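Box S2. Input/output pair 1.
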Amino acid sequence: MTILVTGATGNVGRNVVELLLAAGAPVRATSRNPKTAELPAGVDVRAGDLDDPGSFGDALSGVEKLFLFPNPSGVAGFLDLARASGVRQLVLLSSAAVSDPGETANPIGLMHLAVEQAAQDSGLTWTVLRPASFASNALQWAPAIRERGEVRVPYAESTVSPIHERDIAAVAVQVLLSDGHEGATYELTGPESMTQRRQVELIAAAIGRPVTVVDLVGDAARAQLEEQYGAFGVPGLVDSVLGTYAASVGTAAPLTDTVARVTGRPPTAFADWAVEHRTAFIAA
């Protein structure tokens, strides 16, 4: 039973690969450039580009299950090829943005919703994972923390429930290796709601030195997000992110017990994630 992991060099996909290997499952992974994938020994790495479904002909041979990275470009063609190649089951990495009440105006939610719909129409047995904010999103602050000991944060008092990328992967692996998850949609969060300011404080504690937070609101927040997301060229993306941040100030981020229910262990605290990744925030 070969399991194919797409997006295998990403934050979640790489952890899916490692956890499947640890469980003794036969793992195949795809990358646009297998020579630079740097995946663990024992992984069968093949070329594959989700923008080009035809590039997966070789990679899908003998595969029964797959972990699918959310790429709306070519997803329907890829899933048609997967079914024709003998794939029976897929686990889709989606996003909590799909369950946002305003998802119809949210380009992130719309993108993931389109991939979810393709998965559900594929004829394969499917399970959807909708993680909240990734703890690894905090890595965007690493250069500023290393260089200046200061971060500029749009709406620093906005709240998130950050989830460790390994916890998302652990749920995916449990679904791939056990029964009873068919047709399920799992909302995934970390164990606690916190402000972005608190995330920075926990990173500062992990590295043992203070980090100043500059709270950006209004036009200053928009300018920062334009710099961060403008290059993606997605209409409405900055407005959507800005609105989400502003709306969450003073409210608690949603929490679920899904990680614990599916894996049998509690999700990882952000403080522990920060300690685990502390070297990313320390100047060489």
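Box S3. Input/output pair 2.
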Amino acid sequence: MDLELRQLRCLVTIVDAGTFTDAALELGVSQAAVSRNLASLERVLGVQLLHRTSRSLEPTTAGVQVLARARHLLAEADDLVREATTGHTRLRLGHAWSAMGKHTAEFQRRWAARYPDVELLLVRANTATAGLAEGLVDLAVVRHQVPSGKFAHATVGHEDRYCAMAVDDPLVRRRTVALADLASRLLVVDPRTGTTSADLWPPDARPRIEPTHDVDDWLATITTGRCVGVTPHSTVTQYRRDGIVYRRVRDAPPVPVQLAWRAHDPHPATHAAVALLGELYRTPPKRESASARPR
């Protein structure tokens, strides 16, 4: 016999309501149906779930464990239904490190004011496509090359590169630094989502590279003073940390900021998001691939 959601919902309702009679009223079924659902659940699981007397009703030890899992599963099922039925009334915007940098808060405010019927949800996903390839988001902020074919993208702005260093680093005394200043240093990078590689330097003058896993590890490693990092300006505004100082790298090429989406199934609000973020970066959105017009 297969486990069914209605059986789990019946168990949860019985415990929350306190009696079979009240549970039946809440579920809109007969008391006999409530009893049958509970009995069938106990047969499927092979354990007794409730201690029942004429005056009380309490979960057994096994019942407490099953009840906790039942609540979780029912919540997941409700979320699944909500996602499927609300559809395009929610826009999930992914990012790997620092969202939209200094524009993040203003983007959220303007979105809420202009599109109150489309809920904006920021999702941090430390993957190459900021959760897009994994199906976690509808749209993603990326600052590196987007895989062609499956994904479309638009460049909405550019950000200067900054060097992150410990507060006692000798370079802190300078207002800006050059790539040559970092050539002899140990450079910590995130190879999955980062924007920095040894290719920024000439082949004969490249820093040593040490990989890291995410922005928190990156910052913690730099704080030790044994290495430095190079990052877009968005990190500067989103990750101000004790022990870390940022200096602009004056001769490094800027980092393109892009919004990416699934080429063959764009969210209807994609065009609006591209336009708004381009407005905030004060650069005309440059369309580079498949159309993002709402369908």
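Caption for Box S3: The two ends are 43 Å apart (CA to CA). Residues 284-295 have pLDDT under 50 and may be disordered.
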